[in-house]
Amino acid sequence: xxxxxxxxxxxxxxxxxxxxxxxxxxxxxxxxxxxxxxxxxxxxxxxxxxxxxxxxxxxxxxxxxxxxxxxxxxxxxxxxxxxxxxxxxxxxxxxx
Amino acid sequence: xxxxxxxxxxxxxxxxxxxxxxxxxxxxxxxxxxxxxxxxxxxxxxxxxxxxxxxxxxxxxxxxxxxxxxxxxxxxxxxxxxxxxxxxxxxxxxxxxxxxxxxxxxxxxxxxxxxxxxxxxxxxxxxxxxxxxxxxxxxxxxxxxxxxxxxxxxxxxxxxxxxxxxxxxxxxxxxxxxxxxxxxxxxxxxxxxxxxxxxxxxxxxxxxxxxxxxxxxxxxxxxxxxxxxxxxxxxxxxxxxxxxxxxxxxxxxxxxxxxxxxxxxxxxxxxxxxxxxxxxxxxxxxxxxxxxxxxxxxxxxxxxxxxxxxxxxxxxxxxxxxxxxxxxxxxxxxxxxxxxxxxxxxxxxxxxxxxxxxxxxxxxxxxxxxxxxxxxxxxxxxxxxxxxxxxxxxxxxxxxxxxxxxxxxxxxxxxxxxxxxxxxxxxxxxxxxxxxxxxxxxxxxxxxxxxxxxxxxxxxxxxxxxxxxxxxxxxxxxxxxxxxxxxxxxxxxxxxxxxxxxxxxxxxxxxxxxxxxxxxxxxxxxxxxxxxxxxxxxxxxxxxxxxxxxxxxxxxxxxxxxxxxxxxxxxxxxxxxxxxxxxxxxxxxxxxxxxxxxxxxxxxxxxxxxxxxxxxxxxxxxxxxxxxxxxxxxxxxxxxxxxxxxxxxxxxxxxxxxxxxxxxxxxxxxxxxxxxxxxxxxxxxxxxxxxxxxxxxxxxxxxxxxxxxxxxxxxxxxxxxxxxxxxxxxxxxxxxxxxxxxxxxxxxxxxxxxxxxxxxxxxxxxxxxxxxxxxxxxxxxxxxxxxxxxxxxxxxxxxxxxxxxxxxxxxxxxxxxxxxxxxxxxxxxxxxxxxxxxxxxxxxxxxxxxxxxxxxxxxxxxxxxxxxxxxxxxxxxxxxxxxxxxxxxxxxxxxxxxxxxxxxxxxxxxx
Lengths: 96, 911
Known about the structure:
Chain A is α+β, with helices and mostly antiparallel strands and 96 residues long.
């Protein structure tokens, strides 16, 4: 558990990181560094997007699978790494 | 003629007139008797028959009336009787009389019987111009006809109208059918049997019934008697080709009817309420500690770190083209980079031969600029001309763009004004510092409408004329109004030297009597800070102080003095006039002890936050709304220091420029001296002597709060307030004295320096730092003030004033007013680099000093060591000789080894 904490802390301390959310396969957040309403919103929306992205990748090539999803927007970048049981969502504000 | 006459008469006769024969006879006799009318009548008769051969109706009797008869009866042709009015009623008696008197000669002779028979009194004579009935007149014989003639059309129309009106609606009545012969045709059409039908009866003998039948073959073809053939044959009569055929086509759309039945669905609003699924804390904790999560995190974190670092290193999504393009667009032609003259203001009457000391734009009304003028005399000249100077008033002129010849308003000052400022929260209050050490307040709110209306370019003189009566015109109506100051500070407690800088303190804090910054509850600028070369900095308050007894006498004096004051002066600051004392006096003792700093200009660290960066009109609107209710400054009181909250986030420091070219950082906060209980200001923290003349500008950059521009003597310098070691940038000495400087309000790295020869240098820190990026000559006299202003996003103006009384308004071209991309960051980077440069320089200095001291130490050490004994000359030679011999032997050995020198063989013994 300490290891997990440590890793998360390492990620959190990178430059520009605004928040980290760990979500389970159903989209329910497990751990977060943001406030609750934001977390819930992110978890719900990004979960759906990741499912869609994953199904897209798999449809095109069933041997393939989604490893990482990065969404770059004007204000920040949202990075999602999916897994069988969990997602990890990191929101970063890239340097101007 | 006679022939003609008789058929006519005969024709007449057919109309069954009783007098036909007699009339024929009388006509003849008439013709023979009167010769004159004969040919004309005859002509007429000739003309008449071809024209109209119609037989006159029964009652019309055409006759010829000779001219004499016509005169007698006043029925002359074309005179009494005309085409339009051809009717004349003749009295029967007159006619009979005429017949009697003239007998056979009378025209009416043939009609005598008619006239006698005529039932009425008057008989109608109609002038027949067209000879409708053969003669030029005709008599109407019957009453009915007469009536008809006289009242023909009216009667008929009248009758018709009556008929139309009176006909009521009658439903159609069934009438008996009258046969018109159509039955015969119908009868013809129907088919009936004409003859009896013939009836045949055919029967067979009874005994032949039931007999056996014998069938035999029979050829149908051979014996042609058994049958009758009607073969078809080509009948030529039927071989007619139809050449033409009439056919009609009608095109109609296909009409299809179809129907379906659907279930009616209507939109319904439905909503559900849900809450996101969440785990409880224990569940979260459980999951968090699970192994699967740990593995997941371990596997995934690497990807994240790569991605995050990628983002940090470089922005992969920047559009290089776009970023490149923006900078290029500022490349304009040479003509675009010069300041173009927009307008210039000079008044021949008021500002001739005077120097402009200060210029200021009106903060809220665009296009209004206030200019302070002062005399150009030196101190001695002033003393000599003091009598003359007393008569002429010192003035501040307020100009409007709409009228470059006449100033809009003149403000009278007690003495020449060196500097003045509009109050930021109430732009109709102006405070000015005068040459004699007083500060004056003006309230121009009475003229605000005038200024605003002139700004909009309305008719300045026309309305005045329209409303005034001739003869009662006010000869001074069109003159520029003069406003006197409404309050001046007390002479004894003010400055002792000209006030060189005056500024309003910002509205978010105020200074209490104890000299500490406290919260400003009113949100208005109420305090003023002034400085003067008499080594003092004062803070004044516009509100009336609490009334201690001593001030009562002052006020009485003030009231007495004001008795003869004109009514036009507003009472806004009546409470201050002549009794105004500064709230706080800040002394500036010199750092190194001797004396005090004679301040010329200052710049507060915490001055108007962001309110004047763009000189934007909008930013003042919220404040002016507050002022709509009208502030009565007289009722405001300086609050007691105890009640106010201290404001700690306000910096009380300020930078000060002195007469000796020094830049001083001082603090106006008063501290209570614990020993004596007196309030005293702290000593200034830093002092730098950089400039070779008095500092005429100390100005904070509108973009960076800690960057200050100072201009004085032949140089200017840029400072950062935290850096105590020196200026970030100091210019080299220019050829001419720098008289004034000002930051650009739209570009962080640009500022303007005015020179003694009337030229302006435009410096762009991002372009070159060793010389101005542009120089432009504006006028021939030294420049006294530069003030930029933003009128609109397309028009940035620069007001430049000189020592000859002229104010030039120049337009700043796009290249100088438009900041490039990221200019602020570039400039701040530049400053940081300079700071580092300075720090490095400092560090190097220290290093060098250390080095130097080390070197000195070494040298001393060396000197301190014992000096080794000197060898004598002989000994030295001996040593050298032995060395040389050793060397020769070694040389020999080497040469023998090499083989160059052969060893000398011993000579053989002789035999």
